[in-house]
Write a structure and sequence with these properties.
Layout lengths: L5 H17 L8 E2 L1 H8 L3 H13 L3 E4 L3 E4 L8 H21 L2 H20 L2 H19 L2 H25 L3 H24 L2 H22 L6 H7 L1
Antiparallel strand pairs: 1-3, 2-3
Helix pairs in contact: 1-3, 2-3, 4-6, 4-7, 4-8, 4-9, 5-6, 5-8, 6-7, 7-9, 8-9
């Protein structure tokens, strides 16, 4: 059986490693051995290096001098900077999307919102976090601000890791999980409505509230007094 072409191999390795990092199969701080990854996915080291470069650019992987690469560290007890950045970036991009979106981009945002609602019905953590990422990324693309988009995309990707831990903890309490999903869907629908109506004030207001919902979810499910098991997830 022949190996895939380097370009196709790099994309496959990138997607598989990205998913393994986001779902905590590869723990924060763990080393990434190029030879082991090459063997696992039956590719040469060239597509592995290409995949690791992409993941490093996204902030999911860190290059370590003399030791190759490792999964980027993650500390749930030092999230103030993350949420401050996410709040500012989400308000800016959602507001600009309401101001600048095209009809085509609005349809893309609406489709991404429907996809999240479908994922919510299945309650698959991996699918939920990916669909949420795609929804907010569609909004960011409609904002037409290249530099802000780059920063926001990185914040959203880090938010996928944080959110995965949160959804795992929610999953133990179905009523709490459903309440969180209902509120998330309500926020998403409002964002779409304000962007459709080009209501920048409303868009900024719901974007702020949406970050607060996420922050509160982390505080109640991950940073509660009984956080020992949560921390073990990351070590």
């Amino acid at each position: 059986m022949s190996k895939p072409a380097p370009e196709r191999g790099a994309e496959h390795v990138y997607r598989m490693l990205r998913q393994a990092i986001l779902c905590m199969e590869l723990r924060p701080g763990s080393d990434l051995d190029e030879l082991e990854i090459s063997s696992r996915y039956a590719v040469s080291r060239t597509p592995v290096r290409e995949a690791l470069i992409r993941l490093t650019a996204e902030g999911l992987v860190q290059a370590v001098r003399g030791r190759g690469s490792r999964v980027a560290a993650m500390n749930l007890f030092d999230l103030r900077d993350f949420f401050e950045s996410l709040d500012l970036l989400q308000r800016a991009q959602t507001t600009l999307a309401a101001l600048r979106r095209s009809d085509h981009e609005l349809r893309e945002i609406e489709a991404a919102e429907r996809d999240f609602e479908k994922a919510a019905a299945g309650r698959d953590v991996d699918v939920l976090t990916e669909m949420n990422f795609r929804f907010h990324l569609a909004i960011s693309q409609a904002a037409h601000s290249r530099h802000l988009h780059h920063g926001y995309e990185r914040a959203l990707i880090e938010g996928m890791r944080v959110g995965h831990v949160s959804f795992i903890e929610h999953d133990g309490t179905q009523a709490r999980l459903q309440e969180h999903l209902d509120r998330t869907i309500a926020d998403h629908r409002e964002m779409v409505s304000f962007i459709r109506d080009q209501d920048t004030e409303g868009a900024e207001r719901v974007a702020t509230r949406h970050v607060e919902l996420f922050r509160n979810s982390i505080v109640t499910t991950v940073l509660s007094p009984d956080a020992t098991r949560r921390v073990q997830i990351l070590n």
